[in-house]
Design goal:
alpha+beta; Jelly Rolls; Immunoglobulin-like; eleven-stranded mixed sheet; six-stranded antiparallel sheet; 13 helices; globular
């Protein structure tokens, strides 16, 4: 349990859930309660067909176990710590079956209605977590959602500094019913439903996804160290797991050192330092209007980045001698100090309750300062005035008023990330939501993530390759890996420019193209400019199922996605692009000339739109006589581009960047 009032990035359970987790650590208690199986194995589960599936759990140390399933019997024995594992024989699709585990000491556990089919791991951030109830045509989708051969398991949002052994026992496998479907992942559900039309076997869907998450927390510590550049954060995370107060002190020093390295920043004018109270540039914060985007300040209407907030509270000697709790409601990531003493950080739009130890407060004026990083919308301090208070140990609650703010220049860059923060830390979600899946048998993994990494996309390709290899190290070296390319979001471009969203899409494209066991589902044309969570997940499910049929099930006559660029060659005043995976011929919607092509030099800022013509599986770009040297071609390169090139199967060509070669080199 949490022993102080500080919010923690980890997700704590109900008492029943905690008791179940404690049972996992004591073999005798588990055996007595007949909970021999790991919580993944429960009623309505689906096991992977055509392979020897591991099954595991806890029992009394040294206990002999007998496992019976689908007419087969295997044996296992618990080790000195009570852990046991056995391997079931490979079986074809079928069921329902009963799985029974018996211990020599008389303990028995039986689960029923178990199917054998294809099982999928669906992971990523909010667009993977987005529920069916938030998609198109909800009434019809819910009313017709009755399919006992589709089973769903959602792993609760859980972050951890160390790998966990099991999912909560409150997470359940559920059959597809009108009551169960609305709360399940739409992307995962529509994918499995579509795939089952051509692969008529039971489907199991395991969703481990958390909104707003970066890719780094989904990777193991070993994978991140292999990518490189994360050793300092991982070392601090390891310290946090052993000595939380010491790790927090070290984090405070690291964050302050980063700030003091910014242009013009000094210890004297640091916002957490009382000597900064006379510094100019601070303005009254109209917190009655909520998030800073709602203040009516034009420069903040669409601002994402960092703001400093501060206020003071005057205490008498008796008040200052006490410990206290600082209450704040903010969104998204804050770093908070009282009189220069760091008291905590939290993520998301949640009420903070930060412990202020005795000795931090002093008689007279006390400074409360916090830095808030907002990355999407509705950011900063918010909530009613009552949500901001200093609560003393004697029960006195002192309202916090008179808040001021100061905008942090964008040129300062992004602050360091807290290693143990749930969705932007390091390996926290792998530890809490992937490691508990053990070596469960999966037919493939679906990955829909990337929006949270668009602010610093340069390393995304290496990270995505590392994640793919990390999943394969855990779930099998032949694990297929299906990637959803980021959909569009934000204003459409009126001229060529750079785009972190486009950079991430290109990394996703390249990672899928380099590996025969990977595939890419293009989604840029089914995004929504004004909603980062597009509602047409049905079409995305159809596209993912098509990719799976080609990559996983060997339907090579079916192109996995839409047209893909193969080459770009210049001859005279024309650059000709040749496309593969074209069904029929290339077409452009609502125009004779496909839009979105750019001719670029080698350096950033040298791109210009190009006039394009189509011929079968080729697109020709016309090079103006005044054009600089052409080194590369980009297509649909923006956060929210207008993409008009398709094939006759109605599938889009996805965004890309490729080099241009000279015809004389061929």
């Amino acid at each position: 349990m949490v022993t102080d009032a500080r919010p923690t990035p980890f997700h704590y359970r109900t008492l029943a859930g905690v008791a179940a987790l404690l049972c996992l650590g004591t073999g005798a208690a588990c055996a007595a309660d007949a909970t021999l199986l790991n919580p993944l194995f429960q009623d309505h589960a689906v096991l992977q067909r055509d392979r020897a599936d591991p099954v595991w759990g806890r029992a009394k140390p040294g206990a002999a176990l007998t496992i019976r399933f689908a007419g087969h019997t295997v044996h296992g024995r618990a080790d000195a710590d009570g852990r046991w594992q056995a391997t079931l024989p490979a079986l074809p699709a079928g069921g329902p079956y009963t799985l029974t585990v018996s211990s020599a000491d008389g303990a028995t556990q039986t689960i029923g209605d178990v199917l054998v089919g294809d099982v999928w791991l669906c992971s990523g951030q909010s667009n993977m977590a987005l529920q069916v109830r938030r998609t198109l045509d909800l009434d019809s989708e819910t009313r017709n959602a009755s399919n006992d051969r589709l089973r769903m398991l959602t792993v609760d949002d859980t972050a951890s500094a160390t790998p966990q052994a099991a999912i909560p026992r409150t997470d359940h496998w559920l059959p597809t019913t009108p009551a169960n479907v609305p709360g399940f992942s739409a992307t995962c559900y529509y994918y499995a439903r579509e795939l089952q039309k051509t692969v008529p076997v039971p489907m199991g869907m395991v969703v481990a996804a958390w909104g707003g998450s970066r890719i780094e927390p989904w990777m193991s510590a070993q994978a991140l160290r292999k990518v490189g550049g994360y050793d300092q954060g991982l070392d601090l995370l390891a310290l946090y797991a052993k000595n939380r107060p010491r790790a927090e002190q070290q984090w405070d020093r690291q964050w302050k050192a980063w700030w003091l390295s910014r242009p013009g920043a000094t210890a004297a004018n640091a916002p957490w330092n009382a000597s900064s109270l006379g510094e100019p540039g601070w303005r009254r914060a109209p917190l009655q209007h909520g998030a800073w985007q709602h203040w009516g300040v034009p420069s903040l209407d669409k601002f994402t980045g960092m703001l400093w907030y501060r206020t003071t509270v005057t205490l008498d000697k008796a008040q200052a001698a006490q410990g206290a709790v600082l209450d704040l409601l903010a969104n998204e990531i804050d770093q908070t100090w009282v009189n220069g003493h760091w008291v905590g950080t939290a993520y998301g739009s949640v009420q903070r309750h930060y412990a202020v130890p005795a000795g931090v407060l002093h008689e007279g004026v006390n400074l409360i300062a916090l830095n808030v990083l907002g990355t999407y919308r509705d950011d900063g301090l918010q909530g009613p005035a009552s949500s901001r208070a200093l609560k003393l140990a004697d029960g006195t609650s002192i309202p916090l008023r008179g808040w001021q703010y100061k905008v942090v220049p964008a040129a300062y860059g992004a602050p360091p990330g807290l290693p143990w923060q749930s969705t932007s830390g390091l390996t926290t979600l792998y530890n809490g939501m992937i490691a508990p899946l053990g070596h469960y048998g999966f037919r493939g993994a679906l990955w829909y993530q990337g929006a949270s990494n668009t602010g610093d996309p340069d390393n995304y390709r290496a990270l995505l390759e590392g994640l793919r290899d990390d999943f394969r190290a855990r779930f099998g070296t032949d694990l297929p890996f299906l990637i959803v390319q980021l959909s569009s979001y934000g204003p459409s471009p009126t001229q060529p420019g750079e785009s972190g969203w486009a950079d991430v899409r290109e990394s996703q494209r390249r990672v899928a193209a380099e590996d025969p066991r990977s595939g890419l589902a293009v989604a840029v044309d089914i995004g929504e400019r004004y909603d980062i969570h597009p509602a047409n997940k049905q079409e995305l499910g159809r596209r993912l199922a098509r990719v799976a049929r080609h990559v996983i099930y060997g339907d090579t006559a079916l192109p996995p996605s839409g047209p893909v660029p193969l080459s770009a060659r210049r001859a005279g005043d024309a650059v000709t692009l040749r496309f593969g995976d074209v069904t029929g011929k290339l077409v452009a919607y609502s125009t004779d000339h496909p839009a979105g092509f750019e001719l670029c030099g080698a350096r950033p800022g040298t791109c210009r739109y190009a006039v394009a013509d189509m011929h079968g599986d080729q697109v020709t770009l016309h090079v103006p006589a005044t054009a600089d040297a052409v080194a590369r071609v980009r297509y649909c390169w923006a956060d929210s581009p207008i993409c008009t090139l398709y094939d006759q199967a109605g599938l889009p060509a996805g965004p890309f960047e490729i080099p241009v070669t000279s015809a004389s080199t061929h």
